[in-house]
Amino acid sequence: MEDVKSTANAGSNIALIKYWGNRDDELRLPMNGSISMTLDIARTTTSVAFDQTYEEDQVSIDGEAVQGAARERVSKFLDRVREMADTDLPARVVSRNSFPKGAGIASSASGFAALAAAATKALGLRLSDRELSILARLGSGSACRSIFGGFVEWVAGARHLDSYAFPLAPPEHWHLVDVIAIVSAGHKEVGSTEGHSLARTSPFYTARLAQLQDDLPAIRGAILNRDFTVLGTIAEREALSMHGVMLTSCPSLLYWNAGTVEVMEAVRRWRREGVEAYFTMDAGPNVHVLTVPPFAEAIRESLMQIEMVERCIVCGPGEGVQYLESHLF
Length: 329
Ligand code: DP6
What we know:
The chain has helices at residues 68-85, 107-122, 129-139, 143-146, 192-198, 205-225, 228-247, 258-272, 293-305, and strands at residues 5-17, 22-24, 29-30, 34-50, 58-61, 64-65, 91-97, 151-155, 164-169, 177-182, 277-280, 287-291, 311-315, 322-324. The chain is α+β, with helices and mostly antiparallel strands. The protein is globular. The two termini are 19 Å apart. Ligand DP6 is lined by residues 15, 18-20, 28, 34, 106, 108-109, 140-142, 192-193, 196, 282-283.
């Protein structure tokens, strides 16, 4: 084994067409394809080493030892990697996020993308980007998109090996801005893994999947043509469609808080005043305000005037997985 310790960095991503619901929960085979932008600022760095002196897998995120179900999830993922490398060495994983975890910025996406890259490299496996995407998907669905930079599509596929992401356009293709309004940095009550399994219980789910037949190619085209009005209009409606499914699931999932709604209303008001901005939310209360550079700073300042907005993170399109020479331990 050449690399005993490896470190990788991956960006979170904001879905423009959302992944919600699986045909196979275990393999994370999604019901629909999805499209996202990988972010430059909201990122995770992860160092992994395998060594028999560890006795068992040790995981630390943002300086805290991870136990219980969260550690099990990482261990289960590492078992896959160990199987590929034909080893049973325990691992030490140290991970650092540049953003609050579990708050609707997809820490599992950047986390499992960075983990997949660092762990495979540490064990001397040489995977193609597509193989890495397939592997990362097993840790967290949206992580398969974070392997790549810029604008990324995940093809749903029907089997393990044909469900992976690929780059639609590199980061420099289009300088979109995602101003993330943090309205709560607390941990969410119902994680997306549980949420996905409830999607089918919504009577709106089949309507949503039908709508995506039009929306997926439309967003893809808007990215390639750099048409912000089309992209924003569809992305905003698409987010509401996913939240419509969440709200009408059994049990119902309500990820928003008062701050979420206040920001949504503000964005629509600014739009009527001529500001080009649209909102989208993942499985959490924070609002991603999509815009273009001329409006970004004014939007950030206006968002900070809203009492429930704790802070803003201004992101652009970022690079995919990167390997670093300096390690976290
Ligand atoms: C709403 O990828 O977080 O952010 O595979 O269970 O980890 P798991 O789910 P996850 O689901 C993401 C849901 C979403 C939409 C999206 O990013 O496409």
